[in-house]
Amino acid sequence: MRSLTRLLTAAVLTSSAAVAMAAAYIETEFSTEYRKAYAEYQRLLSSPAYTAAVAKYQSRLGGK
Prior knowledge:
Blueprint: H1 2-29, H2 32-45, H3 48-60
C-alpha cells in the first residue's frame, strides 16, 4: 500500500509540473514580444542574405 501511495504521489506531481510547463509555454507563445521576435525571424529567414549564407555554407561542405 505504501508503494501505491508513493506511485500516486509521483504521478500527481509529474502531471502538475506538466500542466504548469504547458501554461507557461502558451503564455510565452502568445505574448507580444514573442510574436514580434518570430516575425523578425521569419523576415530574416526569407532574406537574400540568409539564402546566400546557406549557399556559401553548403558549397564549403561540397554541395550536400
